[in-house]
Amino acid sequence: MPDIYDPKFVKNVFDRCSDRYITFSLICSFGFTERWRRQCVAAMPALPTGKANGYDLMAGTGEAWPHLLKRFGDIGSIIAVDISSGMHRRAIERLHAHRAHRIEFIEDDVLASDLPPESADFVISTFGLKTFNSEQHARLAALVARVLKPGGAFSMIEASDPKGWWLRSLYLFHLKMVLPLIERIFLRGAQDFAMIGTYSTNFGNAAQVAKMLRDQGLEVEFSKYFFGCATGVAGHKARAGA
Ligand SMILES: C[S@@+](CC[C@H](N)C(=O)[O-])C[C@H]1O[C@@H](n2cnc3c(N)ncnc32)[C@H](O)[C@@H]1O
Asked: Cystine design at 225: which of 29, 135, 175, 230 (Cβ 3.0–4.6 Å)?
């Protein structure tokens, strides 16, 4: 069995998925992923400054940017960070001329990243948590705490296992059986999206990430979306002297 949490393995999964990721994610989630990205941006506390600069970690094809730029119209720049060159290339293709001057890209493994300390007014991440195990979540929490400036804000969201919800088994059936079937039928037998169901159920929910971020000294609020089918963490780093 391959180590599905090895960053090289994850990179390959997303490199192979990149061309179909946007359509698949929108259709197979019945539009929920878009709604959850919008809610993730809405959950982010006010930014400490106008012309804010920050990171979109595990940015993929840049799905969070329209929501970010809509809520915070005066953002100075979004620095998209992703390990997958395929997702990265697709993100560039999707850039609109009016947005391009506000987006930068860094191809980087966030688990071994040397992004500079206190370099961000905000950190956002949508659906980038599930391909990490707990030890990797701890590293990510340390990175978020390190790169945020005092007063900086963050918000992250991930598809989760809605434990306790009476329709949980139907949801898991959709993730683990329906999605791979659709992929086999409509996507020429590829098996990449089948992995996403496995990652999501292994992930559980974002409660443990909330604890790790608190352990790093950040103020954190944990939220459930749609009966816990997605969960998120949002908060900020205390201002100096606060
Ligand atoms: C499910 S996609 C999410 C994309 C996008 N943020 C969205 O809202 O749909 C997860 C992304 O995380 C990236 N990723 C996974 N492991 C990573 C790592 N160690 N460092 C940086 N990016 C990583 C993948 O390449 C992929 O683009």
From this structure: 230
CA of 242 to the centre of ligand 1 (A): 33
Q: Which residue carries 């918000």 as its tokens?
A: 155
User: Which of 26, 82, 111, 179 has the most ligand 1 atoms within 8 A of CB, as the residue to mutate?
Assistant: 82
Structure-token pair, residue 69: 């730029």
Which has more pLDDT, 232 or 60?
Answer: 232
List pocket residues of ligand 1, CB cut-off 6 Å: 7, 10, 14, 25, 37, 58-60, 63-64, 81-84, 87, 109-111, 126-128, 131
Instruction: Quote the CA–CA distance of 129 and 122 in Å, as a whole number.
Output: 17
Strands, sheet with 53-57, edge to edge from the N-terminal-most edge strand: 103-107, 77-82, 53-57, 120-126, 148-159, 230-236, 219-225
For residue 190, is pLDDT > 60?
A: no
Instruction: Report whether 53 contacts 31 (CB < 8 A).
Output: no
- Give the tokens for residue 96: 């609109």
Q: What's the gap in Å between 166 CA and the centre of ligand 1?
A: 30
pTM: 0.92
